[in-house]
Fold this protein.
Amino acid sequence: MTSDSDADRSVSRRVVLAHLAGQAIDRTPGVTATAGPAGRWKTIGAQHTIPGVVAVEDGRGRVDIEVHLVVLWPPPMALEQLGEQFRGRLRRSAGTAGMSERLGAVSVAFDDVRSDTELA
Amino acid sequence: MALLAARGLARLIALALTTALALAGLAAAVFSIQGDSATLSLPSLAGHARLDDVHARAGVFLADLEADGPPAKLAALAEAGASALGLLLLFGVLARRREPLVVISSDDGGTIAARPRALGQAATTLAEQSRDVLHAKARTTARHRGRGGRLRLTAYHRRSTGQKDAAAASRARVQALADSFSLRVRVRGRVPRRGARVG
């Protein structure tokens, strides 16, 4: 049975990692987060919502992160490289926050591609 | 604005109707607990709802159903069909169709992927940047297993532009996108039908 404090800790762990993912998106060039057409892809924290980040904690306390991004075409680098850069950045941030053990799989989905002309 | 209002109204009506249906079903279930003319029986519900006439007419039909014979078999068959249809509708509403993603890379640490529809839109936009192309249509499909997928692009061009030239120009525009996502590209040039809208 899970006590309230365990649940709170679990939620905050999940939200902290989602927050770190949101920060990693902001620092990755050529991409922005998207919550999707139905606004489903987001993590709701105590103080704010993190759009484009879905954080799911498994039974072993590891948090899988799935980020949904819009990429501006042409991208600054190959998309695989862009995704790897994001994952590396998030893993480093989680390590700095002492949560690298808690971070599970990090998946990146490019849900929309926008060209310069579409944004102009 | 009008569209949003219409959608809101449609959702409100759907909610009201489903709530009414659920309440009616609940009432029917509760009033089926007892038989004959007891408090929680269907005749009692018909009395509360002032549906005595309906009850009288339905009573004959229900008596036919209770008796052995062709009407009972037909009713059982209809009930089985209705249940199957209900399950099918529930599956249609609740089952979420996941669009397969075009996978760029995948390992234990996670997956990097893209949505085919987004790639199709991007390919269309890129192809239409070519001066030789009036209008483009793209269809992207993901491979069910492994990386990559297929991109089929149709470039509509003027009669004065050669089909091969239009296809080559479109291919040049989308090649970088296709390479990034390991997409096999097939491009064909077409002249729009007379009177068709382009652009």
DSSP finds three helices and six strands in chain A. Strands of chain A lie at 31-33, 42-44, 49-51, 53-57, 63-73, 103-115. Chain A has a mean pLDDT of 85. Helices of chain A lie at 4-27, 79-96, 116-119.
